[in-house]
Amino acid sequence: MTEIKHNKTEVIVVGGGPAGIACAVTIARAGHEVILIERGSFAGSKNVFGGAIYAQPMREIFPNFEKEAPIERLNIEHKYAILGQEDSTVISYRHKDTDTPSYSVIRGKFDRWMAEQAKKEGVIVVDETVVRELIIENEQVIGVKTELEEYYSDIVILADGVNSLLAKQIGFRDKIDPKDVALSVKEVIKLDRQKINERFNLSDDEGCIYEIFGGPMLGMLGLGFMYTNKESISIGLGVGLDALCDRKIKPYELLDELKKHPTIAPLIKDGELLEYSAHLIPEGGYKKVPTLFGAGVMIAGDAAMLVNNLHWEGTNLAMISGKIAGETAIRALIKGDFSEKMLSRYQKELENSFIMKDLKTYRNLMDEAHQRAESFMGYYLNQVNGFFKMFTTVDSIPKREKYHKFIFDFIKKRNIIELFKDAFSGLKLFWSILIK
Amino acid sequence: MTIDDKLFTVKYKPDEVSHLRPDFEKCKSCTSKICTTICPAKVYEWDDGDEKLTVNYENCLECGACRIACEKNCIDWEYPKGNKGVTFKNG
Ligand SMILES: Cc1cc2nc3c(=O)[nH]c(=O)nc-3n(C[C@H](O)[C@H](O)[C@H](O)COP(=O)(O)OP(=O)(O)OC[C@H]3O[C@@H](n4cnc5c(N)ncnc54)[C@H](O)[C@@H]3O)c2cc1C
Ligand code: SF4
Ligand code: SF4
């Protein structure tokens, strides 16, 4: 027993990403002992995202982060680019919002900063340590096994990211299905500040986001992205792993094609590749959320599939779920009760928050998108570009003739039954998003 | 730019042993060899002559895709030791 006591703490958090850090710092602020275990040589060193972090949820955890954290740029423009083979249609929303903005960041710097803050507030951060297994006694999680040691605690919180081998170990979820993750590859391309500002129509420290549909991903459930950093561009794409398998596509070749698209190429021209990376994105949504708690254990962030992929939201769901898990842990510690019943508060609070509400709103999205990928992510995207081609071409053909031909082709190329199926699927989605 | 050039930009500290262990017997009867396609780091290569899968685990980006996509669900997959594997500076 004395040996066990030696390595015993109140809470162990596995994983130093946004979920784990938010959770650990919440617990430390309430004066409890918490150890955060991260497998990388520093927090952020294994992490990859687009990406943007969102000010409002960040402020909930680190109120002064905008003054102190390593931020790249404040995003003032969102562009939605629909790429054809060679042409494109781009919709752009520009607004310098300083109330609830998003910022581009680099995880190797940003997660590291968050972990440093957490340390200052009392979290014991253990780097370079992989948790290999959870220790279970009488159906209760009582600690973790690393390569070298066993650590014991009243509560273990799993914030170990999308692959969560630990959630699998304790049977909280089944094997992940290829269609429930997107594989994403990314390149960070060095470009000087002046060029970025000119090409993206920005002033210093202002940023721009591209969400990219179609192009090399036409017909597949996949999205591309571009974010501006201070002196680099992050460009990448994420495509359903099932689609990559079915079509036997190498992800980096897809990204190469995207980079060559006439709408994208000039933006990154003469840039130098700083770093290539890859990561999975959870895509299963509401229906694939695993069991979220058990005796002595809770699971937060990507490990719990808490991602809103339509809106590129992940870090915020991670941080807020981590915070709620932390608050639940604090209550359990005060009561000295670590039972499943006590920790069920975590799920209840998640359901009362935007996290589960949003996932529920979009619960049918992925099913419909998978079934109708070819039309929604292919045919209609092409039609958008087709429409603008028709509308902008001056060729002495009477306009009414052109409209008629466009409508005729629209129906003919996609037979009427498929059109009805698409419409039905669309209506079903709207209904489930807006009403019930 | 080839995938090798891309991987050249990634910082690694390789272990002496592989953290990726497919069941090589099962690989022989695998029809898709899908790991050789979808891996973003070209870790897996099938050698037709030797009828064997080579695993360049040193290049692994630790994404987890192969584990999920493997046709035979036969990759014994774990994270490299704490001080080993990939370090992203710009993730
Ligand atoms: C390409 C891409 C683009 C994205 N874009 C955005 C975006 O723009 N905005 C946004 O908000 N979200 C975005 N996301 C999603 C977002 O990155 C994730 O939702 C978020 O990082 C989840 O945080 P987390 O803490 O749950 O997991 P992670 O950030 O994955 O952190 C998990 C941590 O656990 C550690 N770990 C894992 N297993 C162990 C173990 N056994 N022992 C010890 N440590 C372990 C890992 O090293 C890691 O540090 C994107 C994701 C991807 C892949
Ligand atoms: S997909 Fe799996 S079974 Fe097939 S070759 Fe690759 S590791 Fe072996
Ligand atoms: S984890 Fe990812 S990078 Fe590593 S071998 Fe598997 S697919 Fe390739």
Topology, please?
The complex is a heterodimer of chains A (436) and B (91).
Chain A (H helix, E strand, L loop, with lengths): L1 H5 L1 E7 L3 H12 L4 E4 L14 E3 H7 L3 H4 L4 E11 L4 E7 L7 E3 L2 H14 L3 E3 L4 E7 L2 E7 L3 E9 L6 H5 L11 E10 L2 H8 L5 E9 L7 E7 L3 E9 H7 L3 H10 L4 H4 L3 E11 L10 E2 L2 E3 L15 H21 L4 H13 L1 H8 L3 H7 L1 H20 L6 H15 L2 H19 L2
Helix pairs in contact in A: 2-5, 2-11, 3-11, 11-12, 14-15, 15-16
Chain B lengths: L2 H5 L3 E3 L6 E3 L1 H5 L6 H4 L5 E4 L4 E4 L9 H5 L5 E3 L7 E3 L4
Antiparallel strand pairs in B: 1-6, 2-5, 3-4
The complex binds flavin-adenine dinucleotide and iron/sulfur cluster (2 copies).
Task: Walk me through this protein's architecture.
With 436 residues, chain A is α/β, with parallel strands linked by helices. Chain A folds into 3 domains: 204 residues, FAD/NAD(P)-binding domain (3-Layer(bba) Sandwich), CATH 3.50.50.60; 104 residues, D-Amino Acid Oxidase, Chain A, domain 2 (2-Layer Sandwich); 71 residues, no CATH class. Chain A is 41% helix and 26% strand. Chain A contains 17 helices and 17 strands. In chain A, strands 3, 4, 5, 6, 11, 12, 13, 14 and 15 form a 9-stranded mixed sheet that branches. In chain A, strands 1, 2, 7, 8, 9, 10, 16 and 17 form an 8-stranded mixed sheet that branches. In chain A, β12 and β13 form a beta hairpin. In chain A, α2 packs parallel to α11. The longest helix of chain A has 21 residues. Chain A is globular and about 85 Å long. Chain B is 21% helix and 22% strand. Chain B has 4 helices and 6 strands. Chain B is an alpha+beta fold and 91 residues long. Chain B has one domain: Alpha-Beta Plaits. Chain B starts with a helix and ends with a strand. Bound molecules: flavin-adenine dinucleotide (FAD) and iron/sulfur cluster (SF4) (2 copies).
The domain tally of chain B reads 1
Could you give me the name of the CATH homologous superfamily of the largest domain in chain A?
FAD/NAD(P)-binding domain
**Biggest interface: chains and residue counts?**
A-B, 51 and 36 residues
- State the CATH architecture of chain B: 2-Layer Sandwich
Separation of the first and last Cα atoms of chain B: 20 Å
- Give the helix/strand class of chain B: alpha+beta
Low-confidence spans of chain A: pLDDT under 50, at least 5 residues? Answer: none
What is the string of SSEs of chain B from the N terminus onward? HEEHHEEHEE
User: How far apart are the termini of chain A?
Assistant: 54 Å
The main sheet of chain A comes to: 9 strands, mixed
- The amount of helix of chain B comes to 10-25%
